[in-house]
Amino acid sequence: MKLSLRTKYLFYIIAIHAALIFLIFKWLQENKLLFIVSEVLVLASVLAAIQIYRAFGQPSQFISAGIEAIKDKDFTIKFVPTGNREVDGLIDVYNLMIDQLREERTKQMEQQFFLEKLIEASPIATLIFDFDRRISSANPKATALLQRPANQLTGRHLSEIDHPLLNQLAHSNDSETRTLKGTGIETYRIQRSHFMDRGFRRDFMLIEELTSEILESEKKAYSKVIRMMAHEVNNSIGAINSILNVTKSYMDAPDQEDVSHALQIAIERNDRLNLFMRRFADVVRLPPPHKNPVDLNEMVRNVSRLMHPQAAARGVVLHHALPPDSVWVPVDVVQLEQVLVNVIKNAIEACIAGQTVDILVASEHLMIRDNGIPISPDLETNLFNPFFSTKPDGQGIGLTLTRDILLNHGFPFSLKTNPDGWTEFTILFGK
């Protein structure tokens, strides 16, 4: 058993004074005066030893109290000077250390509070992971983006959360920046990195939506090209048709019938080219929606009747399911009808005889689905790119126009093929 320094000192003092008392008793017991004086001196020595013992113990008491305060993270306790130079020097050092620790902790707490508020208010979705790479916190932007409350995200690995975007990120590498697309037109930039927390690594992930910037950049680019093309083509076609019509007026003689017919074909072809260019220009000139409350059920019935002959011609079953009560949504009737026509037409063309196109209406969304040819993963990310088409004679205008109309209305939408083989185009009305 190892004795402390204070215990050793106590044993030493007791032993010395016990020996002194024994010797005084043995040698001076016959001389009463010297015996009494010696005993008084021994008693004073004992009192002095006790005082020195207490003085030696005072620094250790301060140290013990300081250590306990530091263990409890209480940096408000400070000691007052005692008048003892050695002890006061120790107290000054301790008080200075406590002041510095308190300032550092206050600064750290302020920085932590600022960082938390910054992450909470950030327009970038932020996920912070614990030491086991489970989500420990998600800011409001992340919960809105993933459409799940924070308690359904925290404590889980990415692979345990069924979300199309997170499914693509489950095996992403550290310090990797990627650009991914969602099920609609959404485009995201994802950066995953890490920081050190108490000597251990913790990961975090930033998800930034780039959709609006990309769409704005795309629209500026293709708008300029289309305006230039439309200007040149329309000017040329107008002049050419004028010349052709004048020439045709001189070719009315029977012997010039073939030439007249050829000129008529050229004029018609020019008109079709003009119409072709106008369709491109319509995408650029799309006006802001003029919204009025519309009964969605009635609109679907009208569009369904319009598209039914086209579906019947291909042997496709066109069916709609409507709720018993009217669903009123503020929309631009002309523009939203154009969206429904484009989407239903694409769904019909993806089907063969015997397959089905369903139009499903609910209070918060409208879905058009079909069990025709599924959308391959390679095409899924390009469908809403301007003028992208899988049809040999397609212009890629339908989905581009659909995209712009729905964006102008502020309606989120998605297009995807589910594992069961049904392809769904969903429009959310945000009620």
* CATH superfamily placement of the largest domain: Histidine kinase-like ATPase, C-terminal domain
By CATH, the topology of the largest domain is Heat Shock Protein 90
Strand content: 15-25%
Q: Specify the number of helices.
A: 11
Number of strands: 12
Strand order of the largest sheet: 2-1-5-4-3
Q: Give the integer mean of the pLDDT values.
A: 77
What is the C-level CATH assignment of the largest domain? Alpha Beta
CATH level-two architecture of the largest domain? 2-Layer Sandwich
Straight-line N-to-C gap:
77 Å
Order of helices and strands: HHHEEHHEEEHHEHEEHEEHHEE
Tell me the major beta sheet: 5 strands, antiparallel
Give the CA-based shape: rod-shaped
- Number of separate domains: 4
Amount of helix: 40-55%
Question: Care to describe what's here?
Answer:
The chain is an alpha+beta fold. It has helices spanning 5-28, 32-71, 85-121, 140-146, 164-169, 211-249, 257-284, 296-313, 333-349, 377-380, 398-409, and strands at residues 125-129, 135-138, 176-181, 187-197, 200-209, 292-295, 317-321, 328-331, 356-361, 365-370, 413-417, 423-428. It folds into four domains: 5-101, no CATH class; 122-212, Beta-Lactamase (2-Layer Sandwich); 213-285, Helix Hairpins; 292-428, Histidine kinase-like ATPase, C-terminal domain (Heat Shock Protein 90, 2-Layer Sandwich). The chain has a five-stranded antiparallel beta sheet with strand order 2-1-5-4-3. A five-stranded mixed beta sheet has the order 7-9-10-12-11, covered by helices on one side. A hairpin with a 2-residue loop joins strand 4 (187-197) and strand 5. This is histidine kinase. It is found in: Membrane. Its main location: membrane. The chain crosses the membrane at residues 9-28, 34-53.
